[in-house]
Design goal:
Length: 191
């Protein structure tokens, strides 16, 4: 009987391990898919001449963007940017990353935006230049911080893992954690 009991607990632990690994690999696959997925962007020029992503949507079609800039009269003008143009700018900026001269890898405050090429590279490196380059760039702390700072879109905020930072955790009666978001009025019974 002892043997069956230890076998059952071993199976339970093994099953828990398999479940945990599948959850972790699912999260990683979702993050890679999000990084690789093509995007439709609306990029706005700020008063300081820098650019930020105002809107971002996943798309089944090619990457593309609408660039909102001010003309000589101060009027907002929109222009369309194709995937080829975006890729060319991203490649130019990636060469600067390799040289260490890109603003995407420099420390500092990126919340005010970056140049157009840096903004495009920061948001769509994986889908424009490939996952290996996108992953390598995201492993750079300055690039990751600047990328997050240049992307003001609601999609980016909801899709990022840091979107759940505003939640508080509390131990439940059964030993798990109950996460309560500040925007949800969920109730927990038993803890």
């Amino acid at each position: 009987m002892k043997h069956i009991s230890s076998l059952a607990s071993g199976v339970a632990l093994g099953s828990a391990g398999v479940i945990m690994m599948s959850v972790l690999s699912g999260c990683e696959a979702q993050q890679q898919e999000q990084q690789q997925q093509n995007r439709f962007l609306v990029i706005e020029q700020q008063a300081n001449g820098k650019y930020i992503v105002a809107e971002e949507m996943p798309t089944d079609g090619p990457n593309r963007a609408i660039i909102r800039e001010k003309d000589a009269n101060g009027d907002t003008v929109e222009r369309f940017m194709s995937e080829e143009e975006m890729k060319a700018l991203a490649e130019q900026e990636y060469k600067k990353v390799q040289d260490g001269t890109s603003e995407t890898v420099k420390g500092g405050d990126s919340s005010a935006g970056m140049g157009l090429a840096g903004t495009i590279l920061a948001v769509a490196a994986g889908s424009l230049l490939g996952n290996m380059i996108g992953n390598a760039l995201m492993n750079n702390k300055n690039f990751a911080k600047n990328s997050a700072g240049a992307n003001k879109s609601a999609y980016s905020r909801s899709a990022s893992p840091s979107a759940s930072k505003s939640s508080s955790s509390k131990k439940s009666f059964f030993g798990g954690t109950n996460t309560k978001s500040s925007t949800q009025g969920s109730r927990s019974y038993g803890g």
